[in-house]
Amino acid sequence: MHKIQHSAHKLLVYVETLGLFIIAISTVIAIGFEIAVMVRAQTVTLGDLLLLFIYLEVLAMVGIYLKSGKLPVRMPLYIAIVAMARYMILDMKNLDTYRMLGLAAAMLVVALAILVIRYGHTQFPYKTKDEENL
């Protein structure tokens, strides 16, 4: 039974690593496409820069996960805030007051969630495996 569990765990690790590499490669391809769009347009907009920033955050998230085996919950939240800001900037003329307030409120809620998570990590840190065995 233990051998089957070990084999299943090993398979899941391989699939997980493959998935992370697919995400990383896809993100690099998307960065290339965005750069090509900017070159063709011969201009760089704030929306372009924010999109590139989102791509870099995704790559950083994959790198952190590959290095530590842990996914910081804050990373996707940071990406969400930048994505909402990008949406607001790109569609500013078409946003009515309620949608703008809704987006601002959503950004505030996500920012507060990040603060709560940071507070929780500093006040109630996880124990390492060595600390748990004591």
From TrEMBL:
A Pfam family annotated for this UniProt entry: PsiE
Domain of life the protein comes from: Bacteria
Gene Ontology biological-process entries: cellular response to phosphate starvation
GO cellular component annotations of the record: plasma membrane
Compartments, record wording: Cell inner membrane
Topology class, membrane: Multi-pass membrane protein
Keywords: Cell membrane, Membrane, Transmembrane, Transmembrane helix
Keyword rRNA processing belongs to the record: no
Transmembrane stretches, start-end: 12-37, 49-66, 73-89, 101-119
Family, per entry: Belongs to the PsiE family.
PANTHER family membership: PROTEIN PSIE
Protein name per UniProt: Protein PsiE
